[in-house]
Predict the 3D structure of the following.
Amino acid sequence: MLMVIPGQQHLLGLKEAIYDVPYPNAVCDYTLEGLELIRADYVDSWLKLNQPKDIQNLFQMTPYYYKTGREEHAKLELLSSLSTQISFEVLQYRAIAQTT
């Protein structure tokens, strides 16, 4: 099984633009019952948006869009560009063989 989760710094630049106190994503325990973690890869890059519409499109694809108030939305509407890190963890699992 593959699972892709946001990394600790994912979209931190976006959060810095809307929140007074931005926060990194929580690091979760990778343990899943009945599965063994066999590989973890980290993907980090930067995203530079130079159009207000692109910034809004990114924002609307996130849970932050639905969890923030009008004040935070207004902060992003003032931006003409945004640079933010994108960070993912790609986790590969396999089923643990059952012994009887």
